[in-house]
Amino acid sequence: MMHSGFIAVIDLGSSRIKGIVGRKNEHNVLSILASGSIDAGSSIRRGMVYNIEQVGANVHKLVMMLENSISKKIGKVYVSLAGQSLHTMQFNEMKQLSAGMVTEEVVSQLRKAAEKFQPEMVRNYKVAEVEYYIDDKPERSPVGVTGSQIEAGYELIVGRPNLLSNIEKSIAAKTELRILDFIVGPIASAEIALNEEEKELGCAFVDFGAGTTSLIVYKNGLLRRLVVIPFGGKNLTKDISALNFTENDAEQLKIKFGRAMENQDTPLFTSPFASKPDFDLTELNKVIGMRLDEIVANVKEQIILSGYEGQLGAGMIITGGASQLRNLDLYLTHKLKMPVRKASAKKTLVNNSPDLINDPAFTQALGMLLFAVEDCELPVEVISEEKDEDRKESSSGWFSGKNKKNKSDKKKEKVKAEKQEGGFFNKIEDVLGGIFSEEEDE
Predict the structure, then answer these.
(1) What are the distances in angstroms from CA 300 to CA 58, 292, 315?
(2) Global pTM value
(3) Percent of the chain whose pLDDT exceeds 90
């Protein structure tokens, strides 16, 4: 159990950047110490960092807010990995069993092969799931089982090569934080929102975000498909703003009066905005419905492509900030002909902060805490050393300034060293990253 220190996560959402600091006990139950969010503006588009400087500045502000809440310094963070290019890719590896039995070493060799596999035009970010077959028979726990050969079928999370570099640059630009690891956002959401029975029976887990809609299909307890659809709540807002409203007013209309499905006839309503005409609610919801039809058509197509249509016994589970649209669950039930339930973080996994548990916009950030393992607190001795160094520099006189390096210079040297450590792979990543135009995220 973590009695001291804490874990810290940053969720880079298209609408808001969220941060949570917490602790985790031996039963993987979370205690929240602090949380906060800040408007992302237009710095993140469809889940991907677009304005490096602005994202860095926003993360810096958010971290300062969290530090003020806990009266401690954050030195390391876990950061979400998202973006419309993320999707699963199957990878199979086979080995002959010379000893006639599966050993830990064999399983380790298979996984290493999956981790090292680099497909063309995309980067392999995570090994999400694995299914084993021994002599063509499925086996969930292969170690110790006898046979002549073993095959491992992996689901890899892949995406554009420059997803990480943009995040790293934004964090390095304005903060001195060290990124411990990148956590795939949709998987984190599913981990804290779904139960094992739903995964076993089969379900479609949908995270409705501001810039994207993520879909994960589970069956027999395993992740079978992940895809990110490049439409979300912001698209609904932009469609409404086309009816002669500012985006801010359109967002408020969507939140206060928007419905995914009409359950009764609605007359004209009085506009809550000064100098704005009365507006027909039916027209408002017609605009919302048209965009939802497009998003759900994509979701349905991806479920079909997964090969598990009609086999999802637990139906659809939805979460995310945009899932709060009124009657969305009824609309999806009608369109997809399957049971739909709204979800947020499971109460059994978080022992405090009921406001966060019940807010589907924080499901992903809370789920990220389950994957965080390393202490993120900046040790007191490090802070003291920095202060001593500052005092020495300030009292050394202007003559010594030529022989001293300021913090900015040291930071640049540190970033330079990290890039040099990356070596050949980082150069290749930059080259491949340039192939993909940023314009497709606009």
Answers:
(1) 36, 12, 12
(2) 0.82
(3) 75
* 10 contacts 67 by C-beta, under 8 angstroms: no
Q: Answer yes or no: do 426 and 328 share one domain.
A: no
What stretches of 372-406 show up as alpha helix (H) in DSSP?
380-395
Q: Please state, in angstroms and rounded to a whole number, the distance separating the CA atoms of residues 69 and 64.
A: 9
What's the start-to-end Cα distance of the chain, in Å? 44
Within this chain, do residues 46 and 190 fall inside the same structural domain, yes or no?
Answer: yes
**Residue 370, burial from CB neighbour count under 10 angstroms (0-12, 13-18, 19+):** buried
Closest by alpha carbon to 35, among 370, 354, 349? Answer: 354
pLDDT in tens, 357-373: 999 999 999 999 999 99
Nearest-Å Rg of the Cα atoms of the chain is 24
3-state SS string over 80-98?
EECCCCCEEEEEEEEEECC
Any idea what the CATH number is for the domain that residue 249 is in? 3.30.420.40
Strand 203-208 to 316-319 pairing: parallel
pLDDT in tens, 140-192: 999 999 999 999 999 999 999 989 999 999 998 889 999 999 999 999 999 99
pLDDT for residue 393 is more than 60: no
User: How many helices (H) and strands (E) are present in the chain, helices listed first?
Assistant: 13, 18
Query: What SS3 state is found at 199?
Result: helix
Same-domain status, 148 and 175? no
| Angstrom distance (rounded) from CA 360 to CA 264 | 27
Contact by Cβ (8 Å): 81, 182? yes
Burial class (CB in 10 A: 0-12, 13-18, 19+), 41: middle
121 lies in which domain range? Answer: 87-159
> Does residue 61 sit in the same domain as residue 182?
yes
Number of domains in the chain: 3
Considering the domain architecture, whether residues 325 and 355 belong to the same structural domain is answered as: no
Tell me how far apart the alpha carbons of residues 324 and 255 are, in angstroms, rounded to a whole number. Answer: 8
Could you tell me which of 183, 187, 184 has the C-alpha nearest to residue 199?
Answer: 187
d(CA 12, CA 166): 12
**8 close to 74: Cβ distance less than 8 angstroms:** yes
Greatest distance between any 2 Cα atoms in the chain: 81
pLDDT at 422 over 60: no
